[in-house]
Amino acid sequence: MHDTLIILSVVEIALLVAVLAVALIRIQAGLRAIADGLASLAEGVGAVEGHLSLINPTVPEINAPLEDIVDALPGIAAMAETVARR
After folding, report:
1. Domain segments of the chain: what residues?
2. 64, HSE (Cβ side, Cα atoms, 13 Å)
């Protein structure tokens, strides 16, 4: 009886180690897939950064008319409110 319990304990420990090994292998595979996705994302971000660096010098030119529009919006809103009250 004593030998049977020892054998069952060893088998149980071996099964536990096997299950944990399988779980760790699956986790490793998932982490590798995540790492591959992050590498692709980093490449994409680098490409976007490259494109934006070309636009950066022209941002003040692009924003100048937009600032004029933003400055005009309160007056337009006031006129719209006046028209809406009639």
Report:
1. 2-85
2. 4
